């Protein structure tokens, strides 16, 4: 334990250590481990990476990461729930304030009003977008949100069947299936209409009865289609006591009616794409969950919720975690969810972003996404490339390409050479691939036209 | 002297005025008139988002940030949370464009760099756990617990032992243990701790049966005590046909000291945000990496990240028929994992071992000093050393002076020190759970204890001083009951109440 012992992440010098040992009346730290049986002590050597200096570490990581090709080095048409967004410089300036990022859950409200008020504002902003009264402080992502919403609907209705749209993203479907195994929920899939890509009204209604806890609808759905014929389905669900869960693309809600206005009981979605953060290869993300306030049912929400309150003596405005008797640290096995650590900083990031956009910026970005996508489909139409479904859409559509499995890699390479990530491959028949194409607001007209041109060249 | 900033900061909604702009997003030249949303789905009322200019947004958040206590403010010994310093180099590393702008669905040949790092991290965590297979998909500790328990469940089902649905956990465990067990559809068998704060071996022996799926053990436990009978416990559970789950929430005490895999444990989760210093973010994000042995490997979440050594090529393996499925939409909290990788690589083997040494030394040092304060006592036995944390009880102080553990916590924050975790674990009374971590030096700890003594002294003379604390924080003691009686959970609910 000589000079080599010192490290920037360790607070105590050899002298500090000696003094503490002396106080404890022991001769080495090892004595504090004396109750661990010797036969289980690890005596080998660990193979771990190690860089002596911060400089070397930075260089090594930079070198490794340098092998990646980013969405900014090509033209990305990838969506599926997460999206390449621009984060204004001020946003990261705020997020790098250590007062926010190096704090933890605001258990001591008096010293944590910054986190608490900003989370109250986040909840409020989300409620504005989705047309609901109450949102929680975050779930992990949209996919786990579907799972939590299904379990919540089951707790509220005390029913054990959950119905969901077939036009769901496969990753969200996978997480849903996993989340409900413990509660033994029975899952049923609502088919979509093969020409419109929308939920099949008659078949959906046939699946709904008084054993169903909830129905999950995506809008726009995974194929990008705007579900505009939901009235009958939602009315039928409500008549049978079924809770309606809508998973919405949060950007689309600048143009589309919010779920709370067309009968959804619970709204969920992904917050990354409205400012939660950069893509970061898919995480951290931000699971949004909001609902209409109902004294009884809102107590079934998972996760942390911040409420407005007052101080005991002065009666001043204050914010605090509330309805905590739903949570694991108090209710243990009777908690509404096991979630503890959530995505609070991502929620803060999202709140800052929405504040920066304001109503005008929020609408403009959505309009650009919409118009970019529609420009592409119009141009593709001219060269005879169609969409799989011809219904109205927001910024996502599925391109009828039918690329055989064996040629998929070649297509990827072809597009990569033209600096394009063409979309998410999706197969209806297990043999041929169509592509789910999404436009952000970061591509200019030339990028869009290059994409059309590249598709045209591939078809030749 | 400590004075936390105080602003009568309005809600961001109250600061705005129509027509102000804080940001101009990129625009395209397409005509807005070409937007054609089906009439019944058009948004009529725009969302009530705030309208501010950029400078005013900055002020708002600077004000809020100054009303927040954080690790870099001062000592933050929140037991069970491992509030260590978040190295700033990691914040710079994750701002690389080469990580920020990677979409999870882009071709695998374009993400070789990040996959290499994630693979190296998997290997490193496996090395520390003594378990060779790792998934980084669970986005938080509780999600890691759920994943690990799901692996155990899948194993028993696969072996035709569907009746094995009981998870045994001690009553000292974190609340997430029972909650994750129930989420996974297993039954919780909670066993009592003995007077030493350890698992009662007789209770464990009585609890195991042919229904036992596994034991979920946090070690060191939430009292900071090492479960020294771990081998006997393992044998008891294993002989009954159960598997062994090691909750690595408290791994900061044992890095490089013991390896759960070596002791026969089948599965473990790490909290990367705790042991490996990634920022807690005011509540998240975290990461709950899970390591397991060969028998549980087939059930790991899809996809796994693998390495083809011959081609030096990293890839995702989705072809895993026995997998439990997915626990996150993509590959977990990658940017958090990258920070953890950088932390491990900055310390290396020796540095990490020293980290545990200092975490355990500071915990014992501050505990022995606090134990001597009149009105406090160490929970359970005083005769054995603790590991990374300890639990003191303020029971005598409450009895003699009518000043509770919560009052003590509030007096501390009034002096610019974060309180220990209060009232957890539930098996201690008036609990004050102290976890200083290796980020506190001796001087800081001495200062902490001195201020604690000063404050308790004031409370002895005037209990109301304690009841009315804190004084120098942004706001005084919060009325939690009022929040529940007058539930106001959003700006929308606020506006509706004002109209009433």
What does this entry show, briefly?
The complex is a heterodimer of chains A (460) and B (500). With 460 residues, chain A is of the alpha/beta class. Chain A folds into three domains: 3-57, no CATH class; 75-83 and 359-459, Aspartate Aminotransferase, domain 1, CATH 3.90.1150.10; 89-354, Aspartate Aminotransferase, domain 2, CATH 3.40.640.10.
Tell me about this structure.
The complex is a heterodimer of chains A (460) and B (500). Chain A is α/β, with parallel strands linked by helices and 460 residues long. Helix content of chain A is 35%, strand content 15%. Chain A has 3 domains: 3-57, no CATH class; 75-83 and 359-459, Aspartate Aminotransferase, domain 1 (Alpha-Beta Complex), CATH 3.90.1150.10; 89-354, Aspartate Aminotransferase, domain 2 (3-Layer(aba) Sandwich), CATH 3.40.640. Chain A has 13 helices and 14 strands. In chain A, the strands form 4 sheets. Chain A has a 7-stranded mixed beta sheet, with helices on both faces. In chain A, strands 11-14-13 form a 3-stranded antiparallel beta sheet, with helices on one face. In chain A, strands 1-12 form a two-stranded parallel sheet. The longest helix of chain A has 39 residues, at 344-382. The mean pLDDT of chain A is 96. Chain B folds into 2 domains: 91-346, Aspartate Aminotransferase, domain 2 (3-Layer(aba) Sandwich), CATH 3.40.640; 350-482, Aspartate Aminotransferase, domain 1. In chain B, strand 2 (166-170), helix 7 and strand 3 form a beta-alpha-beta unit. The longest helix of chain B has 38 residues, at 334-371. At the A-B interface, helix 1, helix 2, helix 3, helix 4 and helix 5 of A face helix 2, helix 3, helix 4, helix 5 and helix 6 of B.
């Amino acid at each position: 334990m000589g000079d080599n012992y010192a490290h920037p992440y360790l607070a105590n010098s050899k002298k500090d250590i000696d003094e503490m040992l002396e106080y404890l009346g022991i001769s080495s730290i090892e004595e504090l481990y004396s109750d661990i049986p010797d036969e289980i002590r690890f005596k080998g050597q660990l193979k771990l990476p190690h860089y002596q200096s911060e400089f070397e570490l930075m260089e090594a990581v930079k070198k490794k990461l340098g092998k990646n090709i980013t969405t900014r080095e090509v033209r990305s048409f990838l969506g599926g729930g997460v999206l390449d967004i621009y984060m204004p410089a001020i946003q990261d300036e705020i997020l790098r304030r250590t007062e926010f990022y190096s704090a933890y859950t605001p258990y001591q409200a008096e010293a944590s009003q910054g986190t608490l008020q900003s989370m109250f504002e986040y909840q409020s902003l989300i409620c504005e977008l989705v047309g609901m009264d109450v949102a929680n402080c975050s779930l992990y992502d949209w996919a786990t949100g579907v799972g939590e919403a299904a379990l919540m609907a089951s707790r509220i209705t005390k029913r054990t069947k959950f119905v969901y749209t077939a036009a769901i993203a496969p990753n969200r479907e996978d997480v849903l299936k996993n989340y409900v195994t413990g509660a033994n929920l029975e899952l049923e899939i609502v088919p979509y209409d093969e020409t419109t890509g929308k939920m099949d009204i008659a078949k959906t209604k046939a699946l709904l009865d008084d054993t169903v806890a909830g129905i999950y609808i995506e809008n726009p759905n995974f194929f990008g289609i705007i579900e505009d014929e939901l009235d009958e389905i939602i009315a039928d669900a409500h008549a049978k006591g079924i809770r309606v869960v809508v998973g919405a693309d949060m950007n689309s809600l600048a143009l589309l009616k919010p779920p709370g206005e067309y009968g959804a009981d619970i709204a969920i979605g992904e917050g990354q794409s409205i400012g939660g953060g950069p893509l970061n290869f898919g995480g951290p993300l931000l699971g949004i969950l909001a609902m209409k306030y109902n004294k009884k049912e809102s107590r079934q929400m998972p996760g942390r919720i911040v409420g407005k309150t007052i101080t005991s003596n002065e009666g001043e405005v204050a914010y605090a975690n509330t309805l905590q008797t739903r949570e694991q640290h108090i209710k243990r096995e009777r908690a509404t969810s096991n979630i503890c650590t959530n995505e609070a900083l991502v929620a803060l990031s999202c709140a800052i972003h929405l504040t920066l956009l304001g109503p005008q910026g929020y609408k403009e970005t959505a309009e650009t996404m919409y118009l970019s996508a529609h420009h592409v489909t119009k141009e593709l139409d001219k060269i005879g490339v169609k969409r799989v479904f011809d219904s109205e859409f927001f910024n996502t559509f599925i391109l009828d390409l039918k690329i055989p499995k064996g040629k998929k890699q070649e297509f990827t390479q072809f597009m990569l050479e033209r600096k394009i990530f063409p979309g998410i491959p999706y197969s209806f028949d297990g043999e041929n691939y169509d592509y789910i194409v999404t436009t952000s607001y970061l591509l200019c007209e030339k990028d869009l036209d290059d994409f059309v041109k590249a598709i045209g060249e591939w078809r030749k | 002297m400590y004075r936390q900033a105080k602003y009568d900061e309005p809600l961001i909604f109250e600061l705005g005025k129509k027509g102000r702009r804080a940001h101009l997003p990129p625009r395209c030249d397409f005509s807005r008139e070409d937007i054609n949303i089906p009439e019944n789905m058009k948004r009529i009322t725009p969302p009530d988002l705030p309208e501010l200019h950029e400078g005013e947004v900055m002020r708002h958040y600077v004000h809020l940030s100054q009303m927040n206590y954080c690790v870099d403010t001062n000592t933050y010994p929140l037991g069970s949370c491992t509030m260590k310093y978040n190295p700033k180099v990691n914040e710079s590393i994750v701002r690389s464009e080469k990580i920020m702008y990677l979409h999870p669905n882009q071709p695998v040949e374009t993400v070789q760099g990040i996959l290499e790092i994630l693979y190296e991290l998997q290997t490193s965590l496996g090395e520390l756990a003594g378990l060779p297979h790792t998934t980084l998909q669970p986005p938080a500790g509780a999600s890691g617990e759920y994943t690990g328990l799901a692996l155990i469940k899948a194993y028993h089902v696969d072996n035709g032992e569907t009746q094995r649905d009981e998870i045994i956990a001690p009553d000292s465990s974190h609340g997430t243990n029972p909650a994750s067990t129930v989420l996974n559809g297993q039954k919780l068998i909670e066993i009592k701790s003995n007077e030493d704060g350890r698992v009662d071996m007789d209770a464990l022996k009585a609890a195991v049966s042919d229904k036992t799926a596994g034991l979920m053990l946090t070690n060191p436990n939430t009292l900071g005590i090492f479960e020294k009978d771990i081998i006997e416990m393992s044998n008891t559970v294993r002989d009954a046909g159960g598997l062994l789950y090691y909750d690595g929430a408290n791994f900061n005490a044992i890095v490089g000291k013991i390896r759960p895999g070596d002791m026969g444990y089948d599965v473990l989760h790490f909290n990367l945000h705790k042991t490996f210093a990634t920022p807690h973010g005011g509540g998240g994000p975290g990461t709950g990496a899970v390591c397991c042995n060969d028998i549980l490997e087939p059930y790991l979440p899809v996809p796994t990240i693998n390495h083809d050594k011959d081609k030096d090529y990293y890839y995702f393996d989705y072809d895993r028929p026995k997998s439990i499925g997915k626990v996150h939409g993509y590959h977990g909290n990658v940017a958090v994992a990258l920070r953890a990788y950088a932390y491990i690589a900055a310390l290396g083997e020796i540095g990490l071992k020293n980290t545990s040494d200092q975490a355990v030394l500071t915990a014992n040092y501050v505990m022995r000093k606090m134990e001597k304060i009149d009105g406090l006592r160490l929970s359970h036995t005083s005769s054995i050393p603790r590991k990374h944390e300890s639990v003191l009880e303020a029971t005598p102080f409450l009895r003699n002076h009518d000043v509770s553990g919560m009052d003590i916590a509030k007096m501390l924050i009034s002096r610019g020190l974060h309180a220990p975790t209060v009232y957890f674990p539930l098996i201690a009374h008036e609990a004050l759970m102290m976890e200083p971590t290796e980020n506190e030096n001796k001087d800081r700890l001495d200062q902490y204890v001195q201020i604690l003594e000063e404050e308790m002294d004031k409370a002895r003379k005037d209990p109301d001083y304690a009841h009315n604390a804190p004084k120098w924080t942004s706001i005084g003691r919060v009325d939690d009951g009022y929040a529940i009686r007058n539930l106001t959970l959003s700006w929308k609910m606020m506006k509706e109440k004002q109209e009433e």
